[in-house]
Amino acid sequence: MNHQFLPNNEESRQEMLKSLGLNSIEELFGCCIPENVRFKGKLNLPKPLSELEARRLLTQIANVNQPASELVSFLGGGVADHYIPASVNHIISRSEFYTAYTPYQAEVSQGTLQNIFEFQTLICMLTGMDVANASMYDGASALAEAVLMASSVSRQNKIVISQTVNPQYRETVQTYARATGLEIVEIPHKDGQTDLEAMEEAIDDKTAAIAFQSPNFFGIIEDPFPISKLKEKGKKTLLISVVDPLSLGVIVPPGDYDADIVLGEGQPMGNPVSFGGPHLGFFAAREKLIRKMPGRLIGQTEDVDGKRGFVMTLQTREQHIRRHRATSNICTNQALNALAAASYLNLMGKKGIQEVAHQCLQKANYLKEKIDALPGYSIPFNGPIFKEFAVKANRPFQEVQKVLVDKGFLPGIHLEPYYEGMDDWFLVCVTEKRTREEMDRFAAGLEGV
Amino acid sequence: MKDRDLIFEKSRPGKKGYSLPELDVPQKQDLLPENLQRKNPAPLPEVAEGEVLRHYINLSQLNHSVDNGFYPLGSCTMKYNPKINEDVSRLPGFAELHPYQSEEMTQGALKLMAELEKYLCEIGGMDRVTLQPAAGAHGELAGLMLIRAYHRHRGQDHRKKIIIPDSGHGTNPASVTMCGYETVEIPSDDKGCIDLEALKEVLDDKVAGIMLTNPNTLGFYEENISEVCRLVHESGGLLYYDGANANAIMGYSRPGDMGFDILHFNLHKTFGTPHGGGGPGSGPVGVKDKLVPFLPNPMIEEEDGKYFLDYDRPQSIGRVRSFFGNFGVLVKAFTYIRMLGAEGLKQVSEDAVLNANYIMEKLAKSYHLKYHRNCMHEFVLSGKKQKDEHGVTTTDIVKNLLDHGIHPPTVYFPLIVEEAMMIEPTETESKETLDEFVAVMEKIAKMAEEDPEKLKEAPYTTPVRRLDEAGAARNPILKWEPKG
Fold first, then answer.
1. A266 with A242: CB under 8 angstroms?
2. Fold for domain A86-344?
3. Which of A116, A163, B87, B203 is most buried per CB count within 10 Å?
């Protein structure tokens, strides 16, 4: 069969077979695959589509969805609808970037390598940390890897983690912990923030790490300084901080409060929401932990002529060299998503990252106050917020949602599935993309429920 | 002249590459307590939009990629990435769909995933598939967690050994360790396949399972695969299929029929989604019925034509990441399978295998071939002859390929072949390209005889030449810092 993806025609195939001394392709497969494991039938798949038909089908499927962009979205929870400068998509659409693979041959991969080196630098600038890796699968798996790393560094088994950390991240950590035998102690929240007393009580000599998130899942900026101080209660306890990268435009960076490992979901930096993936996790740490870090690291060096160049480095941590003694099984990262993130940060620059964070902060607080003043709604938690906040209605969220969706809004995330007793609660996210007019209409819509 | 400065070195105060509307709500002070405020702004570069674009376009031109040349990187399946996939995955109905939207609003996406699951089940001969894992290695980890959960459920958690042949991918043992298991390595026999006697010796009631790639990393179909499966099952272990090499067998042989219980596919290898310079990939995991209850949450189910996410699965290992997987990649793999269908996928495997055998036979004339028999989609050539006779290593040989605009094969892997060059042409290369590659390889072999010293200095024409990797590891510079 000839197909647009397959460049060999029948004539070439026959010539190649002939050069092998074979008469048919069947002879070739027949001598390789034993008869008893040969698949005799024809795969039961839909018949092949032309490009036009495929485009039509995929457009039809896409149209069955009602994307968030067709409504006014207040959905967040770690993935949010932020401004993506037009050039980002043009940069990641360069096929020299997206049709290359892991830069095993540095001489012909300097584009990918230099970009990752710049990405590592940008993440360090943002977080105030010493080193960053080339990226992880997403925020949730980055936290799971951080927990494993902390356990390996401290040679301890217990992880103390706040329940204000994104529930999906905690579920992922639990999955990894069950496989590796880590003990996970979850600390309840008090007024939407980590219960510090309970956390202090849980920390002992066996505690490998304390993990918290700020802004936390409820949107509240937790004071990291007292949490960081709790490290002293353990012996070799590390502090793992989960952050929203954009919040670091205005919020104190983890490098200022002695965090040991910093990670988060990188989607807000130039990646579309895309039904939850592909996105990226970013991962940074203190210098002394470099050799225990998971994931790829790119380093600067020189070629034989003394020209600056970049290579994959400290690979003795990695699976392809170290096999069962590797620090992690990660080999690829999310390079193309990291390219989007790096171009985003370079386009936004020093001022843009502050402005975007400032707008999120101002707009979210504007809507929060507005909703707080509405009859039938309250703001249950007191702490300062960045771009998200919890709302309590006087009826189940499902009812609120139904009315608001009909009016063209995605009102937020229902909190009940993640926190018991929160059937009337929902999480509202306001990015720099929302306008005052949209927020005023939204508040009016809520009032009308 | 290519502009190679770092973006930070191009930064000048006051430049910007973005624009935002003015803040349209009344600005409030004191929203952030003093101690939570950032004192010094992050020193991100200040560059104009056009400058950022030029920076990246120049960077992109320093890369070798599938779209600008032959890329026979073994076991990575660097095939052509269809452009329609890039277009459709960016449709607003996919790219702008938020993962917290309701099932009613996301029926198209759920249906696409449910259909893709069915196709992968059919191709792999499995009963159910989870699309959640983000990459092959992530799939391996999830698969091992499934093995662990299965044995635990049966009161067999004392089974802690995972058998891996010495030709296995490095990710296999690394994943084993992460899952709290230990690796038991077994040697290959003189034909490059699993040594049945060695396997029998390590099989006991401590074995949790075995991880295999088939065809293996030497490019050979494991001829005793049925016997391997029988023996492992008999000892109470499970069989895991690493799908890195699945491009060789579509429509010809199915891991489920061979006897495997679990597999992962690499959508970025077999199903034409781009490698992205090292991700995003996607590593769906398929299982037989007995392992279905343990699959990660959520699974996608259908009832009366309506799709929903099922979290009510008490024996599930839990989730291995956020949400449902690398959805954008799934859209591309779905489109790829629909455009090829059963006939097309079979042709893909045929052409991939034919291409590999064609160049293997040609190159066997000038290079050493440790195992000389028909291969599947890839084969492992050796630079041993050139090394022994002329002191030219495999590194020297492949660095010369760079000067001819060809990406080197995977080198020094698998470990059981000296001076290994693992070559996988894929089905998307024409005979003309293969002939050119063979000619270049023959030329290099000839140069090894005539002017070995010249070979050892290559490459000459690449953006940078051989780099000091030892120095980079000894004195790691992992980020840019301002001078002084």
1. no
2. Aspartate Aminotransferase; domain 2 (3.40.640)
3. A116
